[in-house]
Design brief:
Blueprint (H helix, E strand, L loop, with lengths): L1 H28 L6 E3 L2 E3 L11 E8 L26 H18 L3 E8 L10 H9 L6 E13 L6 E11 L5 E6 L7 H6 L4 E8 L5 E8 L9 H15 L4 E6 L6 H6 L10 E3 L3
Parallel strand pairs: 3-4, 9-10
Antiparallel strand pairs: 1-7, 2-5, 3-11, 4-6, 5-6, 7-8, 8-9
Helix pairs in contact: 2-3
Length: about 280
């Protein structure tokens, strides 16, 4: 009997140690941002300052890590059994060229991107935001800001089985004074599932102007697969709280994974000039 008790105690200790090791491993592999934290900014010293009163043209685009079309990824089907796991190098290169071409044609002052990879195995660990900026010309968009919203050193999902780094990214023709990452509520689930899942966020970028007033542009990408949970509602409420605390003028864009309500549509102002979708910054 004493021998059995001794072995049970050893087994209990072993189980506790394994649980602690697994907990520590999960924590080390996953991302743990603060609720509000500074986001990295890269900006040329000679970047021009936004002129007060000038129109600001903004492009918002979910580029799906430059994967391109012609794929049915595992997450595209309800059962998660899509045949494709990652885009080819040729497809990424072509999509990069296509994205750069469209940005040049539209010539926005600010480009706000979602699903831009920075250090993902599925896209060969490239910094896609830097690639877009390089292809466009750093002199054209001298300033960038970014914030991860899915960052895992190793994701034990069979279709990925590697490192993930997905970001919100901003390219600006004018100076970026600072950038801030705001954490949004997570999906429901057990601690391990939540830890390895997306850390949805808002990236706010402060653009100083010649008048001393700043324009804040924000970009986000909300959850799409949160059935049976109030994640979407909590994320929308989280965005609203951020906007309430943001000084005017500001604008927000992104992939909200939501359809606008009739009330929201009715609140939109008529477009006076269909050729100029822009925001005018007051003096």
């Amino acid at each position: 009997m004493k021998t059995l008790v001794r072995w049970l105690k050893r087994l209990l200790v072993l189980v506790v140690v394994l649980a602690l090791v697994l907990t520590g491993l999960v924590y080390w592999l996953t991302y743990h941002p603060q609720d509000v934290q500074a986001a990295p900014v890269r900006c040329a010293k000679n970047a021009p300052v936004l002129k007060a009163g000038q129109p600001v043209r903004v492009m918002s685009w979910n580029v799906q890590y430059l994967a391109g079309d012609g794929y049915v990824f595992y997450y595209d089907l309800p059962d998660g059994d899509g045949p494709d796991e990652r885009p080819s190098k040729a497809s990424i290169a072509k999509t990069l060229d296509d994205v750069v071409r469209v940005i040049r044609e539209e010539d926005p002052d600010v480009v706000q991107l979602q699903e831009i990879d920075r250090g993902s195995d599925r896209t060969d660990n490239a910094d896609q935001l830097a690639l877009v900026q390089q292809k466009l010309g750093a002199s054209l968009y001298p300033c960038t800001a970014s914030a991860y919203y899915h960052k895992v050193k190793f994701l034990p999902l069979p279709q990925i089985w590697g490192k993930v780094g997905m970001s919100l990214g901003v390219l600006s023709k004018t100076k970026i004074e600072s950038a801030t990452r705001y954490q949004l509520p997570h999906i429901c689930g057990d601690p391990a599932t939540v830890a390895f899942n997306f850390d949805r966020a808002v990236l706010g970028v402060k653009l100083p102007t010649s008048s001393g007033k700043a324009l804040t542009t924000m970009v986000t990408h909300l959850d799409a697969f949160a059935q049976g949970c109030d994640t979407m509602q909590r994320q929308v409420e989280g965005v609203e709280k951020i906007l309430e605390k943001t000084p005017s003028p500001w604008l927000i864009s992104g992939d909200f994974n939501l359809l606008a309500t009739d009330k929201a549509r009715a609140a939109l102002q008529p477009v006076e000039d269909p050729q100029e979708d822009s925001v005018s910054l007051a003096d």
